[in-house]
Specification:
Distance between the termini: 8 Å
Number of helices: 8
Order of helices and strands: HHHHHHHH
Oligomer: single chain
Helix content: over 70%
Radius of gyration: 16 Å
Number of strands: 0
């Protein structure tokens, strides 16, 4: 379940990489501006990852994970609605801040709730889902964005909400 949610977070992030030219055209942006927005999300996420982890420590892993997934779903939806380049920056920043809680919380949840002999396998599954998301994201993003730039991000938002529902029910 955690691996599926991590897959969704990673695959959505890589949608943008194959959509750079469409974003430049549709939002009247520059290539370097779009690349900056992509880098901004990574920078913001890395900057807030310790805070996201601490939120999980203070308020519970499940709550932190749910907030991370919900924030990511909202950010992807905002990106799908973007008609101006500044909206892209807002969505990517929002995504980086809130989704930063997901990765450390997932790993901590595994460590807290699985016996020692099962942790390695669960961490491996988590890592494999991230790798799979990196590989499949550009493929899915290219396919989905062939008709509409917004479609991959609306699909990604829906997948994140579906993952959120499963986490809320089963975790």
């Amino acid at each position: 379940l955690l691996a599926m949610a991590m897959f969704v977070l990673v695959v959505d992030t890589s949608f943008m990489n194959v959509s750079i030219s469409a974003v430049v055209e549709d939002l009247n942006a520059t290539v370097s501006g779009v690349q900056s927005a992509i880098a901004l999300e990574a920078l913001v996420s890395a900057s807030f990852i310790l805070i996201g982890s601490k939120i999980g420590d203070l308020y519970g892993r499940k709550l932190a994970y749910i907030l991370g997934l919900l924030g990511y779903a909202i950010a992807m939806f905002i990106f799908g609605l973007a008609t101006r380049f500044w909206m892209l920056f807002v969505a990517r920043t929002f995504s980086g801040v809130l989704s930063s809680a997901a990765m450390p919380t997932a790993m901590a949840y595994i460590s807290d709730n699985l016996p020692e002999d099962k942790r390695g396998g669960a961490m491996g599954q988590l890592g494999a889902s991230v790798g799979l998301g990196v590989v499949l994201g550009p493929l899915l993003g290219g396919f989905l964005s062939s008709d509409s730039l917004s479609l991959p991000f609306f699909v990604g938002s829906g997948l994140a909400l579906f993952s959120l529902l499963l986490v809320f029910i089963f975790l």
